[in-house]
Amino acid sequence: MAEANETRDIFVTGLKNAHAMENQALSIMKPQVSRIENYPEVAQKLEQHIRETEGQIARLDEILGSLSESHSSLKDMALSMTGAMAALGHTVAGDEIIKNSFANFAFENFEIAAYKSLLTVAELGGFPAAMSGLKANLDEEVNMAQWIDHNLRSLTIKFASLKEAGQTAKV
Fold it and tell me: How does DSSP assign 107-128, residue by residue?
């Protein structure tokens, strides 16, 4: 029975970490979208993913609640502050939109890895009720990472073209 409790503890910790991670994602994306002027397709996709992320947090809350657990406010706050600082750091870059895209792509892949791990622990620990919510979150993260991957070239071309034309290309 101790082994089952250990797996449950690993799962709950992972869920709390994922909840904080999604709050961090919001604190990264919201400032980005508020600054975008020349890249409406990026703004639209970020706005969509912000709504998805809010849904992911709700799914994680539901899974935690089903285990009689709740998220860690301290972890949520700490990672949200870290995310806000990361977003702020790119605002001084002359190629802010490009740097944001790199960071977002890396973060999406981090989230993908986190959800794959959580799905594995859910399977090992016998938490089948959590699988559909975690899979939905994973699918949304994979879709966002693929979108960034497929659009990075055109975004870079647009950035370079605006820069060459002497226009504001930053955001």
Answer: HHHHHHHHHHHHHHHHHHHT-H
